[in-house]
Amino acid sequence: MKEEGENINFSTPTEFLVLFQAWTIVSGIVFGIFYLIFAELKATNFLIAVCFIAAILLITSIVWLCKLFVDFIHKKLKVEALTKYRNDYLIAFGTIGMFIVVLRVLPYFSTLSKETLTVTSLVYLITSTSIYYFFVFQTLDKKCTWIQLDEKTWIKFIVTTVLINVVLLIVCIRISVEYDDIIMRNQIILGFWLWTFPFAITFAELARVLLFGLQLIDSNGNRNEVTKKSVELKKVKSKSTPKPEPPSKPVAPKPTCNICSAPYTENGVHTPRIIRECGHSVCEQCADKLLNAKCQNILLCPFCQKPTIVNGPAGTLPKNFALLEQMTEMQQDPIRIV
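User: That's the sequence. What structure does it adopt?
Assistant: Structure tokens below.
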């Protein structure tokens, strides 16, 4: 895993799964195109191709509209960015997980034909890939990422996920044995084996968002640490009592330039310079800008509009030593000055 402060760019099992699903969809499209070119010209072939393309466009459009609706709700409720991303991921992984659960349970109620299995599998591939792209892919490792876990927590999390899926698989096989219909029994076992890997990955990602949360990524691609959304941390926070802050010493306000509002310094671009003809003071940086604005050696006071001839840069104007001495006294005894 990445160390703190390093750029974040790593893949998760979900990304490989979705990449495989997208590759399957593209392969199906390419195969369909070659089939239309070289197969016998029949209306049914073109009808199947049109239905397949229409299904892709329809499902993708529905998922995209759902994403726009969710973003609209987040905007209206003025949800913070981190909470918004967390909600998006919960919606994505929760929806995909429920879809897989339906596909795993469906063979318990009826014997599915090859055509039904093919159609439901295609709908799942298109839907899950679209959901992942619109809700997760556009922000994961770009605007936010997972909170890093220590090795011990990782092992516990992976072992728990594997055990849950093994128990579900054993229960499935045990229930399928009770069915007298061999075809239905084989479909139940095959369905559970087929959807075990996608379900395990989706379940793990959903649990990871719920238990550990996310963290933002700054503009430089580095982790921006946030409070970990875990139950243990919340318990520790609720038990701990904040220590009273010691009373702060009064700090006298520093004199600032009346043009740029930057505090004056003894040296540098914010040194107070006196405009000779009127006695007003501005910082050296603002005096330079006033000289450059006129493109000549005449500095027009921004307060009283009295001109002053300057032979050279703004650094040749006299320092306001009285103001600098006052700043030194304020630093030494701020209570007396205030």
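Residues 272-337 form one domain.
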